[in-house]
Amino acid sequence: MANVIEIAGLPPERIVFSPSPLAELGAALHALAEPGHHPGLHAWVTATTACLKPELADRLHEADFLWRSTRSDLLLPATPGATLAEDLDALDRIEDEAFVAAAFEISCSASYTRCTPSPLVDAEQRARTREQAAARGPRQAAFVDRMLEDPEGLRVWLRRLFEDCEQAFFGDTWQRVRVQLAADARHKAELLRHKGLAGALAATSAALSLDEENGRILVDKLAAGHTTASGEGITFIPTAFGWPHLLVVHAPGWRPVVQYPVASPELPAPAAARLVQARLEALAHPMRMRLCRSMARGAHTTGELAEAYGISAPEVSRHVAVLKKAGLVRARRRGRYVLHELDLSVVTRLGSDFLESVLR
């Protein structure tokens, strides 16, 4: 389970760490739309929402499919600008067909990893896009119809929406976080120069790793994808609003972009998605659940557990071995006896680990 970014032969100068005002605005809008994903931003979300004028809030709701369940690639620029205006100028230079196709990457769409024609020029794709939008409510359906019928007008409307967000709340927010993001990007660039890509990735996110033998970056996510950065390069964008999300642009024809949350002491280290899956599978067996009940209350030997549940000692050993391999049970020796107990701290983290994995 990973996104794979091919980097064979990629020179270091094409690996860019840079903040982006548009990407940070997209992250902030997502936090406003899905505050449950970001409990650490509760105070900011509450204060910002309270200050939004109803007219602006309505317009944000109209377009929020661009950033609610996932983030449109349009909001993750491959070449970030110094200001929101610069990022929006670059957005304006994208051709209508590519812009509309990217805008309509509806959540959970299987077509993201395939080259599909733009709904502006392909009747079948246009019908499919309208069907997906209709399933998500009349407001999104109306927005999609407007963009299909008048893409230029909708793009002007969308730019004005982002500019109004900057005036209403994001300008102050960006001034507060941009120094931190710029400092983080400089630090990662220094690590890239002095410790190589492996060192820079390790400092960026525990979900990022370098497969040097095969010349690729691995992104630990439940959703699999594959792209190449060997030609255009790759951009890493820090965000103060992103955790627990780690976003990867890997659509065909787009330069890979990774938006990563800036680390801070209150953020727990993410568990690998594969480990979370292994722990959930280990607990799915009813007998292992019953054994955990006893081991949660105290340390027990294999013989004690076998007697308590009326099964053989080898069967208990097999179940305990599965739980130990998943990191849920720890063992300690007392004389000739081995006592097994549930690691309560790991089990306590399992819910948040699972949530972090599926939101990553």
The low-confidence runs, each spanning 5 or more residues with pLDDT under 50, are none
How many angstroms does the end-to-end distance come to? Answer: 12 Å
Q: Enumerate how many helices there are, as a single number.
A: 13
Beta-strand proportion:
5-15%
Mean pLDDT: 89
Overview features:
360 residues; alpha/beta; 4-stranded mixed sheet; 13 helices; 10 strands; 52% helix
Concise account of the structure shown:
It is built from 13 helices and ten strands. It has helices at residues 21-33, 42-51, 54-63, 84-92, 96-103, 123-135, 138-149, 151-204, 273-283, 286-297, 302-309, 313-325, 344-359; strands spanning 3-6, 15-17, 208-211, 216-219, 225-228, 234-239, 247-249, 257-261, 329-334, 337-342. By secondary structure, it is α/β, with parallel strands linked by helices.
Provide structural commentary.
By secondary structure, the protein is an alpha/beta fold. 52% of the residues lie in helices and 12% in strands. The chain has helices at 21-33, 42-51, 54-63, 84-92, 96-103, 123-135, 138-149, 151-204, 273-283, 286-297, 302-309, 313-325, 344-359; strands spanning 3-6, 15-17, 208-211, 216-219, 225-228, 234-239, 247-249, 257-261, 329-334, 337-342. Strands 3-4-1-5 form a four-stranded mixed beta sheet, with helices on one face. It has a four-stranded mixed beta sheet with strand order 2-6-8-7. Strand 7 and strand 8 form a beta hairpin. It is elongated. The protein starts with a strand and ends with a helix. The mean pLDDT is 89.
